[in-house]
Amino acid sequence: MSLTPFHVAVQVRNIEEARRFYGGILGCTEGRSAPEWVDFNLYGHQFVCHLNPALGPQGRLSPHFNPVDGHGVPVPHCGVVLEPQAWRELVERLQQHPIEWVIEPTTRFPDTPGEQSTLFILDPTGMRPSSSHSVTSRPSFSQGDRRRA
Q1: CATH code of the domain containing 38
Q2: For residue range 66-75, what is the model confidence (pLDDT) as tens digits?
Q3: Residue 59 domain-assigned?
Q4: Closest to 61 (Cα-Cα) out of 130, 127, 144, 143
Q5: Nearest residue to 147 via CA among 32, 44, 48, 67
Q6: Does residue 33 fall inside a structural domain?
Q7: Is residue 149 part of a domain?
Q8: Which of 26, 45, 70, 80 is the most exposed place for a label (fewest CB within 10 A)?
Q9: Does residue 98 come out as left (phi exceeding 0), alpha (psi in the -120 to 50 range) or beta?
Q10: Is residue 2 situated within a structural domain?
Q11: What is the pLDDT of residue 130?
């Protein structure tokens, strides 16, 4: 199945810090940029970091967590659904860096149509990128086990 690439824009406190995190740690290639924003290629999707000077040099986005399968899932968050091998490679890459984990790599909803391995991390500004892979071909739309907490 072929999906249309998405575009998402997030706020950051520092463009160079965003370049180090999204480019250096996550391995996203950089596209267009200006002093106030930078585009990244996030597995074929357009991920844009926009400078928010109001955050200040140590500013962080306020967290909110929603219970899902025994974990506090950060909201909002965005991420990509990867094939199992690509997901494992991402986990290995992240484990080589001092990452602020919200939810360490785990498998949730085991033995159900919605089974997925997932992880949640924080960027320096407090944005919550995530990644998952599923045993089904359409994980995000599974109507299987709807357990909450």
Answers
A1: 3.10.180.10
A2: 998 888 988 8
A3: no
A4: 127
A5: 67
A6: yes
A7: no
A8: 70
A9: beta
A10: no
A11: 81
